Amino acid sequence: MSLKFIFISSKFEFTNIKCTSLDPDFSNFEYCRLKSVNRTYKYITLKVNLYKIPITKVRVNFAFLKRYNGYQPFLYNISVDACKVLKNPKSNPVFGFFHSLFRDSSNMNHTCPFNHDLIVDKLSAEFVNTQVTKVLPFPLGSYLFHSIWLADNIRRAEVKVYGTIS
Length: 166
What we know:
Layout: E1 12-21, E2 27-36, E3 42-50, E4 58-67, E5 71-81, H1 82-87, H2 93-102, E6 118-124, H3 125-135, E7 141-151, E8 154-165
Antiparallel strand pairs: 1-8, 2-3, 3-6, 4-5, 4-7, 7-8
């Protein structure tokens, strides 16, 4: 009798990013782009210029969607008081997981208030790949991470990150 080992691996790749300022008097995206350095290294980078600081009240609504026949809800659609969760990360592990995807690549890694422009710098697909295929595995397919950022209970920005797991 012989044993056969089958290794199944999956890979996450960014496919697009779209950033929209919903209140240009409050903030604007200086840049928001997906950069493909070569066939194996892709990253996203963005900078939000904030015009009315300090920001002391931040809510985030994020939804994780999967493409079936159009993008449909998949697993999560939640809203959180980001200032409270950043102060006590264990209060919302779902938000904590998604925040951990970009925390180390950004300057959004502290509690409120935010007195500076917000930056996500070179968030690599390889890092996200580890999180969504090994730490918390997701099924193969195309995904959309859709987030709406509110300050003082007013919708200020929308960020959509598209990717595939193959």
